[in-house]
Amino acid sequence: MGQTMVEYVGGMAFVGKVASGHDVRMDAGESSGGMDTAARPVEVLLSSLGGCTGMDVVSILRKMKTEPNALQIEIQDERAPEYPKVITKIHLVYKVTGDVPEENLTKAIEMSLAKYCPIANTLGGVAKISYESSVIAG
After folding, report:
1. Could you read off the pLDDT of 95-121 as tens digits, one per residue?
2. Which domain holds residue 2?
3. Into how many domains does the chain fold?
């Protein structure tokens, strides 16, 4: 089991001390009493989803011998209007550059979202996750 420690560092800022030894900084905007020095916690969560599925996709494409030159994942989210304003929908837009067959990319994304990415599988229990993808030659 992993362990993460989150420490209050003043204002509305917190620093996560994660098991790998790295820090994850978070802060609120000025309108919420913060100093806007770091990402918001939900932004960190969504970025973690992108990193998780992105690492899976690159790893799977490498095994298929079709590693991309670049991968960008745009994450669009919708939230409930009332507190706790949970995320209800997440749409991922994968943009790959390189000599990657579309069918390989689709298979890699679907494997990540259905089997390998624990963040996608956790969030998928409360939010509808959809995706689209495109390959740009290069």
Report:
1. 999 999 999 999 999 999 999 999 999
2. 1-38
3. 2
